[in-house]
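Deliverable D4.2, example record:
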Amino acid sequence: MRAAVALIGFLTLVLGANCAAQTRASHDVSITVPALLRLRIDDGQPVADAWVPLAVDVANGVARIAPDHTRLLILANTQWQVTATFAPDAGSERLVLGFAVEGAATVWSRTRSPQIVLRGAATGGWRERTVRYALAEVPADGRYGGVITYTLSRP
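Output generated by the structure prediction step:
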């Protein structure tokens, strides 16, 4: 009988220590959420890079830009930036194009170098921003053009 009581006592001690150890166990769990960056331009199609053909007609010293703006929709779960690159057509190399976004300074571009026109943090849903176009100076009467390429990326 004493042996049975001793065995029960020993098992209680071992099992109790084992259960106590289990209640104090800790685990590190981590997940990696990939960066989500989506850009939509006017027609609502998601793209990584998007381009907009630009036409500038100048008559009697008055310039008309078509389109005069582009609506961008951005979805991101991380820091992001949108760059714009203006590639002028042959004969339009002297154009200095401005990208104006409400609440920010106008960014001017003469070269094919990407210019940061927007930046921000996680959007928490689709964020709409409108980029308006301007010219630094009106060129001689004629027709000018080029292509604007928008790229959404992480800084």
